[in-house]
Amino acid sequence: MARKPRIVIIGAGMAGLTAANKLYTSTSSNDLFELVVVEGGDRIGGRINTSEFCGDRIEMGATWIHGIGGSPVHQIAREIHALESDQPWECMDGFSDEPKTVAEGGFELNASIVDPISTLFNNLMDIAQGKLAPNSGGDAALKGCTSNGGFGNQSVGAFLRQGLDAYWDSCKDHEELSGYGEWSRKLLEEAIFAMHENTQRTYTSAGDLFNLDFEAEREHRMFPGEEITISKGYLSVIEHLASVLPPGVIQLGCKVTRIEWQPESKKPVEIPNGYDSSSRPVKIHICDGSVMLADHVIVTISLGVLKAGTGQDSGMFNPPLPSFKTEAISRLGYGVVNKLFLQWSPNGNQTAGANDKAKFPSLQIVFHPPKSELRHGKIPWWMRRTASLSPIYNNSNVLLSWFAGKEALELETLSDEEILNGVSATVSGLLPAPKPHKENSPEFCKGSASEGSEVRFVKVLKSKWGSDPLFLGSYSYVAVGSSGADLDTMAEPLPKIGSIELDRGVHHPLQILFAGEATHRTHYSTTHGAYFSGLREANRLLQHYRCVGV
Ligand SMILES: Cc1cc2nc3c(=O)[nH]c(=O)nc-3n(C[C@H](O)[C@H](O)[C@H](O)COP(=O)(O)OP(=O)(O)OC[C@H]3O[C@@H](n4cnc5c(N)ncnc54)[C@H](O)[C@@H]3O)c2cc1C
Ligand SMILES: *[C@@H]1O[C@H](CO)[C@@H](O)[C@H](O)[C@H]1NC(C)=O
Ligand SMILES: *[C@@H]1O[C@H](CO)[C@@H](O)[C@H](O)[C@H]1NC(C)=O
Ligand SMILES: *[C@@H]1O[C@H](CO)[C@@H](O)[C@H](O)[C@H]1NC(C)=O
Ligand SMILES: *[C@@H]1O[C@H](CO)[C@@H](O)[C@H](O)[C@H]1NC(C)=O
Is the same domain home to 527 and 431? Predict the structure, then answer.
């Protein structure tokens, strides 16, 4: 009796469930495959983790649809009516009334200071991303960027700082500021620039922008149109993809510890009619000690887990992955980004009544640069690269900050109390010093929360992507020393096939396939990149069994 090819998908995140959905819906009528999805965690979704905080729907992981024009995630969300909800959710519409920019020491910054630096930064990023020609527009600072003749292989971080220097060269005649205490114009401009850099760190997950490859940045694509969040939660898209699968296909709590495969065809066997049912080449070891045999395995685990699993003394793959693969894995970047949710208490206690008129503004935060003697001693180091603190929707008492790099990792180790104290100290450090500058104090400090009464936060929730062994970080980026080609390499199936001749000789082709956000050359780091990669690998198998369009 001929057995059906067995496909095991490792990981029930966006990539794995998209692949499962495609394989199942394309072949369920002719019952072609045996399909299993093994997931190490106790839930589906992976880096999509819709949750709840203070009664509001929030996202611990993936948050935005990055451009609705042509996004498959948007299309699904719209089709399943996940974009409509009567419950409050993390829609971030508080930004529609201009965020306030506040600087350490207690200064609300005028748009006339902030806007030119924001424009400079955005233009520089547009150049880095290939959306704007370096010499376009009449901006002298941007023209300055072209004068070094191509940017070689440098980092986005170096490029940005060059742009800032060129800007300063082009406006030496700007007047010194007054009314901002110890802040000079140059210091303030640098600190505003750094605030934007910190936002960019969370967008890319590169803890240090000097490690973010400049050349590759322009290959990354976003969809056009608005960026929105999903009212019913990102998880609704995942649940929709999983809903077609019969019960039992997804196996939760099944952490894969080892994958044995057969890199070479030792004894090619001619099989006239396709499938050889006698042996399945891949052996998958699960943490409970059980073993699963498969013809094909689609690996969707994160780049961070792959980095850890292919390191020197860790053998997730047996035999180890070939060096072209492990080198790409080690060169590519994979960073930590975390979200912190806080409940603000307008009147210092936990019972936020409906008659509370106080509203926490969307804050953009400007800190003194590293090593500055003007730094406020009580602000903890792990808060100092946080670019914003904003309500999750207009008038919400739930606030959100994003963290990247070592600050994000530190956040994971802190107790709730340490976080509450650290954030309170920070916000207090943004309030005016007791004596001067009263007229410049941020408005929100003048109301109920002013004059000695500390700004109070009462509850916290944070993500922990860096220390969770199933993720070991948040998303990938192209690090200096790597390139877009490494992302393509990530996607190559094993055993590697060189030519058609060799192809015929391979006894068991397509044993290990790779999907996941880190395998997509232009949409890496996103949910739709993961989606596309899952489709790609499902189609690779469908094509292999010549059932495209069944
Ligand atoms: C804080 C944060 C914010 C983000 N914001 C956005 C955003 O706004 N927009 C956007 O598009 N993207 C965002 N992303 C990125 C997006 O979430 C990911 O790119 C995408 O979800 C990755 O999907 P995946 O299927 O490739 O991987 P994953 O979701 O990681 O799926 C892999 C699965 O494999 C499982 N697994 C791991 N190891 C094993 C093992 N040994 N055995 C069995 N199972 C295992 C994991 O538990 C996981 O479920 C964000 C991510 C984070 C962390
Ligand atoms: C936010 O809510 C207030 C009233 O609560 C309203 O006046 C304001 O227009 C709202 N802003 C936005 C952007 O919806
Ligand atoms: C801020 O800008 C306003 C006008 O836009 C101006 O009147 C005010 O003096 C400025 N304040 C500072 C401190 O520059
Ligand atoms: C990167 O830049 C350095 C210094 O400019 C140069 O020596 C090196 O050859 C460059 N490498 C590549 C791959 O372009
Ligand atoms: C997912 O969300 C839950 C809260 O709903 C939280 O306990 C868990 O730690 C989150 N996972 C990660 C990796 O942040």
Answer: no
Do 524 and 439 fall within a single domain? no
Residue 246 belongs to domain with CATH number: 3.50.50.60
Q: Both 22 and 122 in a single domain?
A: no
Cα-flanking dihedrals φ and ψ of residue 428, to 5°? -65, -35
Residue 51 beta carbon below 6 angstroms from any ligand 5 atom? yes
Give nearest CA residue, ligand 2 atom 11.
394
Calculate how far, in angstroms, residue 110's C-alpha sits from the geometric centre of ligand 3: 6
385 & 456 share domain: yes
- CA gap 195, 339 in Å, rounded: 17
82 CB neighbour count, 10 Å cutoff: 21
**Secondary structure E strands in 367-427:** 388-391, 398-404
Domain membership flag for residue 317: yes
- Ligand 3 atom nearest 440 alpha carbon: 13
Pocket lining for ligand 2, CB < 6 angstroms? 93, 96-97, 394-395
Write phi, then psi, for 438 (nearest 5 degrees): -55, -40
DSSP string, 337-348: EEEEEEEEETTS
The C-alpha atoms of residue 457 and residue 98 are separated, in whole angstroms, by: 23
Please work out whether the CB of residue 112 comes within 6 Å of at least one atom of ligand 3: yes
pTM greater than the 0.85 cutoff: yes
Q: Which residue is it, tokens 């070479």?
A: 264
- Of 436, 462, 488, the domain-final residue: 462
Pocket test for ligand 2, best of 362, 394, 395 (most atoms within 8 A of CB): 394
d(CA 525, CA 15) in angstroms, rounded, equals 12
Closest ligand (CA of 214): 4
User: How many C-beta neighbours within 10 Å does residue 547 have?
Assistant: 15
Q: DSSP labels for 91-104?
A: --GGGGS--EEEET
306 pLDDT higher than 80 = yes
Which structural domain, as residue segments, surrounds residue 309?
6-49+230-335+468-544
Instruction: Determine the 3-state secondary structure of 218 from DSSP.
Output: coil
161 lines ligand 5 (CB under 6 A): no
**Residue 195 is which amino acid?**
M
Name every protein residue with a CB atom under 6 angstroms from any ligand 4 atom.
152-153
Q: Are residues 36 and 58 in the same domain?
A: no
Decide if 167 is inside a domain: yes
Q: Let me know whether 205 and 159 are in one domain.
A: yes
- DSSP state letter for 14: H
For residue 516, which ligand has an atom nearest its CA?
1
Within this chain, do residues 425 and 454 fall inside the same structural domain, yes or no? yes
Give the pLDDT confidence of 312-349 residue by residue, as tens digits: 777 899 999 999 999 999 999 999 999 999 999 987 54
Co-location of 488 and 522 in the same domain: yes
For the segment 242-300, what is each residue's pLDDT rounded down to a tens digit? 999 999 999 999 999 999 999 875 555 555 555 554 589 999 999 999 999 999 999 99
**10 alpha carbon, closest ligand:** 1
Residue nearest to atom 14 of ligand 3 (CA): 110
* Cα 421 from chain centroid (whole Å): 27
Residue whose CA is at the smallest distance from ligand 1 atom 1: 61
48 alpha carbon – ligand 1 mean position (Å): 6
Which amino acid would we find at residue 526? Answer: T
